[in-house]
Amino acid sequence: MTRTVFALTCASALALAASASAAPTPKSLGGARVHVVYPGQTLAMIAKRYNVSVDALCKANGITRKSAIRPKQRLVLPSRDGDTVPASLDPDPDLARPEKGDKPEKGDKAKPEKAEEKLAKGKKKASTLVLSSYTGSWRGQVFKKGKITDSARAGIEKVLAAWRTGQHQAINDRLIRILVKVSDHFGGKPIRVVSGYRPYSPTQYTPHSRHNSGHALDFSIPGVSNKVLRDYCRTLTNVGCGFYPNSSFVHLDVRETSAYWVDFSGPGQAPRYADAQGRDPGEAEREEPAVGAGDGSGGDEQTFDPDEI
Known about the structure:
The chain has helices at residues 2-22, 43-49, 54-61, 113-120, 150-159, 173-185, 226-233, and strands spanning 28-29, 32-36, 74-76, 128-133, 136-141, 143-144, 147-148, 191-195, 216-220, 239-243, 250-254, 259-262. It is of the alpha+beta class. The chain folds into two domains: 24-92 and 114-122, LysM domain (Membrane-bound Lytic Murein Transglycosylase D, Chain A, Roll); 128-308, no CATH class. The longest helix has 21 residues, at 2-22. The chain is globular. It starts with a helix and ends in a 47-residue tail after the last strand.
């Protein structure tokens, strides 16, 4: 009898331990919490899984409750107090795996898995990119059979042309594809380009600006806060993301190694990069930020050689 009771006690303890280990916990990469959507999942299911509200999840990603989500889409997760903890991330296939017991709630309209798989394979209406800047505007579909069309390339180059001179520059293909990805994430909202291509000038802070080669842009999305836009851009792979609290845009560029920086300078001012504690160092000009800071975009952007990052 004693042996039987002991065995039952052990079995119960093991079951409780297994149950605790199987409970869904937020995935963390580089200090950030990001969820990769899997087929059939909804915003309500994701919010319930991480014990956050649907409204907080929507706010963290600049979307609404009615926004469509698709498999393999990465969503920034808010913390319990509603703030987000962003970071630059590499894709993690484990994040796309459903947890046991992750089931739709009653009344939660989850699309059938087959339908979602078709969407993931491109069996849906092609994305429409909407851009505007000082040099013009363009609206249209960027891809045909997975390739950037000539008309899209010409339209994007026009919008990202140098605003002072109207001079054009070929825009990097990966930057175009990332622009479409950003647009899709925020429901196709118009993208306002503040600065795209900038011809080299001897008065710019350094000769290495990615704006000079069509690899960078400064932009915002009306209706989406720059903090939310920044948080999403930081989930992208191999990009430079600059946040400018005293300006009206977020900087985004393509590069071999991801980087993030905060610049407290205002329009036309020399870069004023945050210190190690993330604070404004003051009005004193700094010749260069700490190693790893990346590109700056105050006025004519300060940029560093990739080998220094």
